[in-house]
């Protein structure tokens, strides 16, 4: 039975068998790609970005920028682009109607069937997607760093990636994720978008979303699963290391704060754009393709700095809700109230002047000091896992350092065909 994803289209994996792959790429020009593009090749080939089958052509980019829709009218909020310089286009002989081989780590990764070579106004793209054209916005900075030309066309993997440990068990592409959901018997699932290790504010965000998603189901048989979908992508100094993110999220289940009957940790390869409301739409699309029915959204989903207003993502989601096959689960800020002696939410009790925010800066300073914090901040088992990851993967630190970036093992490899 076909699995239907975003836009009502069947989710398909675009992956060649080794023998067919060798024949199809024989004699084709090879073009090496950077990590971001390799991530997106995987996403396109496994159906994370369905109904896209490859990098966008100009009509789709134009539709996204001007109307937040693909050329066929399907809602979509962030362009998926492949860029080359004008010189590279000439040197590699890239032109419409030709195919090339995209390589990563020196090995063939994907067949790229070129449909179009085009240019696009990057400032206009930024203004639409990020609500600003300021280069200090990380999404704008990334956009301005794209080269002169964009190449549109279909992508097919010629070699599946080898997902390295400890990430292997958490890589569940759409078709596999959907099968896992069926095996667990979940009739509803709620996604938690994250690129952090979990503190108790995150934990209660997930539990609150679970309760909301579960609300009108029969009490005799809980059928709701929380799907933590960790974003694994570009790392900046002072980010949490990827290994700590997935293993600490999983530790919440292993330590019993959730259970395998209502929780699973997974990952998606994606470099965050910090597009706020537009990225909230994108995450809804991504998790729809994973087979998830509900998606939790906090106060400043995927935001950065002060570019987006409080709950702006909620408002945009509300405006297009009928066009998305996923139900948003909204939450306000999770706080700690010392008077109530419990985790609470913004406006729930009347002790607003005494409530304490979960400060990421404070939590990072606690983790850096290596002193186990109170259970009300980070679960002790999670803290122990953070420290273990620091020693095993982070050259002594749970945060990204220049040494980590230099010495870390890659999340995935492309082996020789």
Would you kindly provide a written description of the structure presented here, covering whatever features stand out?
The chain is α/β, with parallel strands linked by helices and 417 residues long. The protein is built from 14 helices and 16 strands. It has helices spanning 18-25, 35-46, 58-67, 86-92, 122-130, 138-145, 174-184, 200-214, 242-254, 277-289, 312-320, 360-369, 380-393, 402-407; strands at residues 30-32, 54-55, 83-84, 99-104, 107-118, 149-157, 162-163, 188-194, 224-232, 263-269, 294-297, 327-330, 334-337, 342-345, 356-357, 412-413. Strands 1, 2, 3, 4, 5 and 6 form a six-stranded mixed beta sheet that branches. The chain is globular and about 70 Å long. The chain starts with 17 loop residues before the first helix and ends with a strand.
